[in-house]
Amino acid sequence: MKQFNLKTPNLVEGKQQLKRQEILDYFNRTFSLDDELYKTLKDEKAFYMRADQLRHPLIFYYGHTSCFYVNKLVLAGLIPAPINPAIESMFAIGVDEMSWDDLNDKNYNWPSVDEVTNYRNTVKSTIIKLINELPLTLPINWESAFWPIIMGIEHQNIHIETSSVLIRQLPVEMLQNASFDAVYNTDEQPVQNELITVEGAEMQLGKPHGHHSYGWDLEYGTYNENVKEFKASKYLVSNAEFLEFVEDGGYQNEQWWTEEGWSWKTYKKSEYPLFWHKNGHSYKLRLMTMLVPMKWSFPAEINYLEAKAFCNWKSAKTGKKLRLPTEAEWYRLVEYSDVKDATEWDSAPGNINLEHYTSPCPVDKFSFGDFYDVVGNVWQWTESPITGYPGFKVHPLYDDFSTPTFDGKHNIIKGGSWISTGNEATLHARYAFRRHFYQHAGFRYIESEFEPKIRIDSYEIDEEVVISCEENYGEDYLGFQKYPLQLAELLKDQIENPADKKFLDLNCSTGRLAFEASKMFKEVTAIDTSARFIRPAIELQNNGLLRYVIKDEGDLQLYKDVLLEDIKLNNNTSPLHFLQDDAMKLKKKFSDYDVILAFNLLEELQNPTAFLSTIHERLNDGGTLILGSTYQWQESVSHKDNWVGGVKKNGEPVKSIEGISDILSSHFTIVSQPFDLQYATRKSSRNFEVNSSEISIWRKK
Amino acid sequence: MKQFNLKTPNLVEGKQQLKRQEILDYFNRTFSLDDELYKTLKDEKAFYMRADQLRHPLIFYYGHTSCFYVNKLVLAGLIPAPINPAIESMFAIGVDEMSWDDLNDKNYNWPSVDEVTNYRNTVKSTIIKLINELPLTLPINWESAFWPIIMGIEHQNIHIETSSVLIRQLPVEMLQNASFDAVYNTDEQPVQNELITVEGAEMQLGKPHGHHSYGWDLEYGTYNENVKEFKASKYLVSNAEFLEFVEDGGYQNEQWWTEEGWSWKTYKKSEYPLFWHKNGHSYKLRLMTMLVPMKWSFPAEINYLEAKAFCNWKSAKTGKKLRLPTEAEWYRLVEYSDVKDATEWDSAPGNINLEHYTSPCPVDKFSFGDFYDVVGNVWQWTESPITGYPGFKVHPLYDDFSTPTFDGKHNIIKGGSWISTGNEATLHARYAFRRHFYQHAGFRYIESEFEPKIRIDSYEIDEEVVISCEENYGEDYLGFQKYPLQLAELLKDQIENPADKKFLDLNCSTGRLAFEASKMFKEVTAIDTSARFIRPAIELQNNGLLRYVIKDEGDLQLYKDVLLEDIKLNNNTSPLHFLQDDAMKLKKKFSDYDVILAFNLLEELQNPTAFLSTIHERLNDGGTLILGSTYQWQESVSHKDNWVGGVKKNGEPVKSIEGISDILSSHFTIVSQPFDLQYATRKSSRNFEVNSSEISIWRKK
């Protein structure tokens, strides 16, 4: 298979005039490898068989990768119109596992293999023409016209591997080796695994923008983790080692399994790994296109749930705390083992990129110093659910590549397999699957005293909350500065020597003003009545990262990442406490403040009049009370008797500011004339709300 | 009573240095007259008796007029604080007839008469001081500090009359004449009524701003009516003339009564007018403080419902079309009779302003040329429900003087009674009461072939509709021009020779753009799917006037009058048709247009895709289609399959503008790059919505 060497190209360095040819070669080799893969299907019938009852037949994947090029290039404006709308519609969606009713055969009327082959060829010619004709300047980056072309090639590389997994689930009699004949076909004496110590280190994960090779959006960003010392198994777990678990009744004993794992095991009635075929008392091993006598020296290929159960069982057996590595621990292993990245190889150091075998091979075949198979052979499951690194941005041409998997249910696999090509074979590669899913994936266990730090960093999607997030941390709209920054400036203007003062924000919402205030005041308490709203503030404070999704138009959405460092808040701030509490029933300890802010709070209170009548009790003498309100009184919130104004009293209209003055005058003097603070709230890309909040500033007598 | 001559002062002309004294005199005389009125109550008990079961006892009115001064002066900022908040709260509201549960005695704990008298004296001193000290410059107008003082005096004059009506309903044994001893106490031979012709004339009603005497807000504005010739009864209807109706079974015969009238009659079990007291087979007449033998020559004092029943009965008896006059017909009678206004009298030409009697007098006592009692003696009911004249504006210091009566249920009384003083005695006076209510009021009937033109001109209060009214006809907010005017400019820029072209506005809402278009195009059709929204447009087109109420803050509201002439639309416009129709199911006749506008329509349609696919059928070749949309697709409006964009199709995001282009491209070419039209929508004084509607312009191939 050496002819298909599929190293992803350097998009930054090199001679511009050679780069076009290099990309063209990469495209042609990928396309040809894809063609070759489908030649393992002996006849057309195999194209229409379900390898997995919840997945489309291979004919879908045969068409899908070509469709993808077209759809992305249309989206990018590089080709003017669809090539074959009927095919492109049929082959666009449905890559993933579905629910049973999506797959009703009646809903599909697949075209013939010839039709799809013709379509593939048309697309191929179109892309070749495009590669030859598009203006090309280095570096090629996210914004370059060549990016969606590379995206299509890498997408095809992914599907070469995932299709190979599907082929591995078709009946062997329908398959042939074709070009995939470099199968490692002998078995060797299984090795005894052992644990080797890896010292801890401060790890920085994430691919820098401007890196020389193509990356999917979720590879970028920066994430730091202090990896503690651990011990890792020298080898991937072999079929022989895994057999101990099977033979010890591992699949019959619920105690080793997570709840999710046991639920899966029960549903699938699994008793051993999927690619093991039991024949009486002996096992055979299913490879991609053939069934061979069990290779005990090969890595066990399992899903995460099985790997996790194995670790739990083995922990109990050995008295050691064994588990899978996190993503950061895997990178530590890479660093420890001094693994070169794919773009620096002359020849692959492991069983990867089809450079050695068209199958797995024994776990002791490729050494990287102390360890074996740090990359290659089979993917390695980790404990880490996938999520974007802080600073993650969605690529606009493929906005659902990553984010649907940021749900805490998709775990990362690392290291690549024998058939991982292109981007898949790079160290930055980050792929993730549902924990019950099968890929060419196995595992290495580690021993560690530390519970893995599980980051989900899911996206806030509560509609009202994300509107507040954008209002606090997003862009300025319609020429209005964000209201928390206007308030921060107000505090700067109005409060002398804030560094000596305690500040209370009584309606902190998603918290921006409180963060800003913590740059100025001695101490900041930020209270909101709603846990929904305060949660993002706390998340930003604790994790340095806040993610939310805002509405674009219709169903379309935009993904936003806010980093604490973006708002210059990682250093030099005072104690800042976010707390959920009811401003009407504040605990006694919330007293002795020098400055209290109640911005747009009155209209949210059940009794604003009572609030104003007692707020002086929280404030030190000479302290400052800052009120802001849009006076949007609602009977659903407060009884009309409790409104401070906006009603007739004794038949005369009472403006809210007059009502406020009446109530406050016994304990406060007004500092200056009330004035309006106008700010914009984004509801969608084309819809905004502008409020004018009247600010009044009061000094306690 | 001559000493109480209460002519409302000239606020425009005269010597400035004398004006202060003139106002002070007017205040003192009014206050003294009010004092005198309450001296008709023999003892304190009378203050606490209910003259009318649905009205407060007189103690309330005794305190109310003084409270009113204070509350208005506080509101105007002329006195810093309430004088006696407890009293001012208790006496502020409750002038009108109430429902029974508002009047539960337990809810009231009235102060003693002495306490209220003391309060009145304190207020009186305060006002005198204010009149002496306030800066005074002529003219005194709406904005002058003296206006609320005159307002308070005129308010007190009104209550002198309305309290006199309540006193008239107390038991006579509790009353004495006191200063009100100029009762007309003899009866005279009743005169035979007759009808006299009054020629028609073009009448202009409404008091000009800048008029020399005080006016309540509803007196201002301009209203034109072409009054047709009519005949009017020479005299007000006397008790003798009304007796014929009573004796003919008028109160037993439903056919003479309006539905409202019969309902009232049945509820009250009335058999003759309220102030007639039947004693065996003879009647006595109740005057303000005494019961006297029936004065058959006096005007019949009845409510509107009784007067109307009388006219219906008399029409049937005489075969003539008899009814009450409209307000405009009454003014025509004033003009015909050359009646001088109160401010021009030396002596009152009728039984008015307490200048002659402290009771009514025979209907043939005061002649005004051919007619008697054109003003004075008793008020005269009219057919006209009260409403503001076009151009009406609420006075900010008394925003509920008028508008609560603009409901079609309050009819105007004109001409004043023997006890009408101050503003009440002027020709511009406009008072109105519920049709079943009693004042010192009678009537004159007229014969006319013409159905009276009844204007209600009520205020649009539908929250969504008034927001659109303000968006179309109101102010500009946040620096954004109103969207219909932005669209009108767009039409000017984009459409050549509009005077030759037919224009279709498919989402006209409350119609401003259609009006603007009618200045340019040969013909305009304006369609909206909602009758609620199109109604104000039609009202403006037909009546030249549109009224609506917008939200200020809380419950507070602002009243808006829009005149067709304000938007320069009374001349030179083309045919303009407003129609309610569904843009998805337009009748065939809506075709052959040269320009079609669909602004913010797509998002309101059940199937925007179908709409775009067929809209070319309505347009002439070469015609222009202008689309605007905020793309706020909602599943509650249209099924997602019908959205033109804002969704993923074949897995790729499709922006709405791309979807529009796809659909329109078979019949249209795009004229220029789409662009955004931003506009603001006012929701309340402090809350706005800003939308950004994407405009695209298409030429039909």
Automatic annotation (TrEMBL), chains A, B:
TM stretches of this protein: none
Source domain of life is: Bacteria
Specify the Sulfatase-modifying factor enzyme-like domain's residue ranges: 194-446
InterPro entries, per the entry = CTDL_fold, OvoA_Cterm, OvoA_Nterm, SAM-dependent_MTases_sf, Sulfatase_Mod_Factor_Kinase, SUMF_dom, SUMF_sf
PANTHER family tied to this protein? GENERIC METHYLTRANSFERASE, SULFATASE MODIFYING FACTOR 1, 2
Annotated protein name in UniProt: 5-histidylcysteine sulfoxide synthase
What's the source species' lineage? Bacteria, Pseudomonadati, Bacteroidota, Flavobacteriia, Flavobacteriales
Q: Which gene encodes it?
A: ovoA
